[in-house]
Specification:
The chain has 113 residues and is of the alpha+beta class. It has a single domain, classed as Aminopeptidase (3-Layer(aba) Sandwich), CATH 3.40.630.30. It has three helices and five strands; from the N terminus they run βααβββαβ. The model has no long low-confidence stretch (mean pLDDT 83). It holds the Pfam family Acetyltransf_1.
Length: 113
Amino acid sequence: MQIIALMPDHWPAVKSIYESGIATRNTTFQTTAPAWDDWDKTLTPACRLVATNGDQVIGWAAITPVSGRCVYAGVGEVSVYIADGARGQGVGKALLAASEQSGFRTPVSSNFP
């Protein structure tokens, strides 16, 4: 497994993994995946990661700033999504560890039941 920067050409695989998470109804309140341009605008460039196994994207992580106010600088919400066949293999832990190197003081994650 390798953790690398998420690039626009990863979007089809990232979107597919995101849609799989949406389908579980346990990961987000979103009901559909946005278009790349809309999704791209919401995330900080400091932390957009994919986990790959060879050429296959098996997970992704990204940080969304929680506020534009200066007092919240360095606070962001971490999203981590893992492909169905890659769950339980430490991919999420590796992505979370890599996201901690993003420069955010307080990456927080939302947990759904």
